[in-house]
């Protein structure tokens, strides 16, 4: 990885810590209801896990860890504005970049190579394959960092994080799928989504997800992508980790599939998901029990 100024990264790390702590204290202040506080604290927990994963897969590279800490910084103004995490209305990527720009104007941050690299990672993590430009707007150095952040973001969201928030989002209709389509059965899977899922192929959730079944499979696809990636051993280890009251994340997905997917598709979907896990582990699929 490119060499970066450690003093610049330390300052950005401190800024991130202070900004996140401000929202942690807000959640504990009693000014928010339980649902709001839980959603924000879940996002903070995701950020902290992502930093840990980034450290693990990069041998504690400082740039990767600071970029991981800042990658979802736009989620906080997004929640302030919308009362939820709604990328279909305002992308948290744009809000994160806007926050960095405002901090520069307010003299709380100053321009640097390190900040510009992280700014680009904030703007494009998780969606470089969906960028609607003929040529990538990222520098070579920023693309390297962005790819790392995209990988560790998917590792946590797909293999651990989704198990902690997705059921609450379904219950409270946080994505407003039910509100937008009140007569639509939220357990139905869109045919295109099931095709993407069956191939373990990442898709654009903003254009493809219409039900919570679609959204649940999007989360599972993040895990599958990780199981197919260069850190598949980390993905498998995370999926075997006890979390959020489940024996492990694999068991959590099984329970959520049975509970929220169309019964005619639930077990088939879990079999597909499990097959990617077995392949990543190198097990014989004909002998390894689910």
Q: How is the secondary structure organized here?
A:
Elements: H1 6-27, H2 34-57, H3 62-70, H4 75-82, H5 92-105, H6 113-124, H7 140-171, H8 177-180, H9 191-199, H10 205-208, H11 212-228, H12 232-239, H13 249-260, H14 263-281
Helix pairs in contact: 1-2, 1-3, 2-3, 2-7, 3-6, 3-7, 4-5, 5-6, 6-7, 7-11, 7-12, 7-13, 9-11, 11-12, 11-13, 11-14, 13-14
Tally of strands: 0
Beta-strand percentage range: under 5%
| Domain unit count | 2
Radius of gyration: 19 Å
Distance between the termini: 40 Å
Characterise the protein shown here.
The protein has helices at 6-27, 34-57, 62-70, 75-82, 92-105, 113-124, 140-171, 177-180, 191-199, 205-208, 212-228, 232-239, 249-260, 263-281. The chain has two domains: 1-152, Hypothetical protein af1432; 175-290, no CATH class. It is built from 14 helices and no strands. The chain is mainly alpha-helical and 290 residues long. The termini are far apart.
In short:
By secondary structure, this protein is mainly α.
How would you describe this structure in keywords?
290 residues, mainly alpha, Hypothetical protein af1432, 2 domains, 67% helix, globular
